[in-house]
Design a protein that fits this description.
Length: about 525
């Protein structure tokens, strides 16, 4: 339900084009990110021992967690705060304050991890982790800086800097440097260093881009002429504190099961098996996270204008696009987890097959729920995000300590799966009750149901007879094409989908008028409102 006293809603659609263009950029960059990350990890996993792969995976998880926690919630806070500003002077003040805080956090985070490396290694009973943590320490600082720099543009509803520098250049450099280190037989330390070096170079390039482009970008915002409703305004300080807690809680939730598993089994090889399954399961979440990246400032800006109708429509549209990219991956992982792991990591990681199936369930459900955490923060409820994050983390830790001693890998996957669903589920419940925001419209449910009805018998028939791991990508793209076809087949095309087509046409400099007419004919007619009956 809308709050009383909101300002008049704008009469023009200010979100479909932004989400359409942003989604096109993020989907392409996400697919590239998936490929590059997979290539880098596969190259490493196939050319180092399982113990070294476990050390790399554990260090990557821990330093990545520390890097995002070290950002103190600044990326989401500044993106949300910029959406509520309507003049360049206000935005410049926010950018200056955030830049200073990010620089300090980056230096402190790097030094702290470097000095703590021996203690972290001894905590996991593996002295060999000391050098790994020391080499990864610089990555903590670059993670903080790159996230905050990209967030300045995120707040202005521009996805390109994050897509280009954080999702393409950085993983591309990592893949190249890691492959070179292995090909030249430079040793495991050089492989570790390749990750840090790629982050440093990408962050420097993003810094140069920011210095050149940020000033004109924030001087004149794309929606400065829109009305402003201050009732949902939250200060940058409060956003930073609460969203820092949210980011920290979410990261602890993501990695608590892995760390508790490592602490119980005292065998980094087993952690490596679990990380292999988790690497594939997190592919589900990359698309979701990428779309939530842009949905946070869009929902904030729409709330600042009082346009709750657009918030509801954009929530459904964003959920549909995310599900379209993840349903095919779920069918691949559920029906043939062994071949999926073999395709990605080789024959030594089959022990994680059952864990991958469980992780896939949790990942899919959390995606189907939609971008509820970003929407809740965008609408001005970061404290609620924090409370629900606490519940999710408590669930993961409690289940991990209960199940891992008895069930090992499978217990860790169950703990993560339940916690992964709890957080966005509680956020969605809050949105549904408070604002009637949810993804379950007919344009969402009909294509999803048709996709499941078509893909389930297809995979049931193919799986016993065609289980060749090299066909995994073929199955994925075939399933993805089927999911896309369900939108026009069920007459569930939305105007936001046409915005994606427009962005694609602009990118390739080719028009598809017949396809546009075909899709436009399948856009459902809006239901009459009580005022127009």
């Amino acid at each position: 339900m809308d709050e009383p006293g909101v300002v008049p809603q704008p009469t023009r659609d200010t979100h479909s084009g932004v989400l359409g263009k942003g989604t096109s950029i993020m989907v392409v960059s996400t697919l590239i990110l998936l490929l590059l990350n997979l290539v880098a990890r596969v190259v490493i996993a196939r050319n180092v021992t399982t113990t070294q792969w476990g050390e790399f995976s554990l260090a990557l998880a821990l330093t990545g967690m520390l890097g995002i926690m070290g950002a103190m919630g600044l990326p989401n806070a500044i993106a949300r705060a910029l959406a509520f500003e309507r003049d360049g002077a206000g935005r410049r003040r926010l950018v200056r304050a955030t830049s200073t805080a990010a620089a300090i956090a980056s230096v402190v985070g790097t030094i702290a991890v470097f000095l703590a490396a021996p203690f972290l290694a001894s905590g996991f009973g593996d002295p060999g982790l000391t050098i790994v943590f020391e080499l990864f320490s610089v990555a903590v600082g670059t993670t903080i800086l790159s996230m905050v720099l990209a967030a300045f543009f995120q707040g202005m509803e521009k996805a390109e800097p994050n897509a280009i520098y954080n999702q393409i250049i950085s993983p591309a450099l990592f893949a190249v440097f890691a492959a070179a280190a292995i090909y030249l037989h430079l040793g495991f330390d050089a492989v570790i260093l390749s990750y840090t070096l790629s982050g440093v170079i990408a962050t420097i390039l993003l810094g140069v881009y920011t210095a050149r482009r940020l000033g004109p970008t924030i001087e004149h915002g794309p929606h400065d002429d829109q009305p402003l409703d201050r009732s949902a305004h939250v200060s940058l300080a409060e956003l930073t504190i609460t969203l820092f807690a949210v980011a920290s809680l979410n990261l602890l939730t993501q990695y608590a099961d892995t760390i508790i598993l490592a602490w119980y089994v005292r065998d980094v090889a087993i952690v490596g098996y679990y990380t292999a399954a988790m690497t594939i399961a997190r592919l589900f979440l990359v698309s979701n996270s990428s779309l939530m990246y842009l949905y946070l400032p869009v929902s904030s800006r729409l709330r600042s204008t009082g346009d709750m109708t657009a918030v509801r429509k954009s929530f459904v549209t964003t959920a549909r696009w995310t599900v379209a990219t993840t349903v095919p991956l779920f069918f691949i992982c559920w029906f043939d987890p062994l071949q999926t792991l073999r395709f990605a990591f080789g024959p030594n990681y089959g022990a994680a097959s059952a864990a991958l199936q469980v992780l896939a369930i949790g990942s899919l459900i959390s995606v189907v729920i939609g971008p509820s955490p970003a929407a809740l923060a965008g609408l001005g409820h970061p404290r609620a995000n924090m409370v629900y994050g606490i519940v999710s983390l408590s669930t993961n830790i409690g289940l991990s300590f209960t199940l891992i001693p008895k069930m090992g890998l499978l217990g860790a996957s169950i703990a993560w799966t339940v916690a992964r669903v709890v957080y966005p589920g509680l956020c969605l419940l809050h949105l549904w009750i408070g604002y009637d925001v949810h993804p379950f419209s007919m344009t969402f449910l009909k294509p999803l149901a048709l996709a499941v009805l078509v893909l389930t018998p297809a995979f049931l028939l193919l799986h016993p007879h065609v289980s060749v791991y090299l066909l995994v990508p073929v199955f994925f793209f075939a399933a993805f094409a089927i999911v896309l076809l369900t939108f026009p087949a069920t007459r569930s095309v939305e105007r936001g989908d046409l915005a994606i087509l427009g962005a694609f046409e602009s990118a390739v400099k080719v028009r598809f008028p017949r396809l546009r007419r075909f899709l436009l004919e399948r856009v459902p007619s809006p239901l009459p409102t009580p005022a127009t009956k």
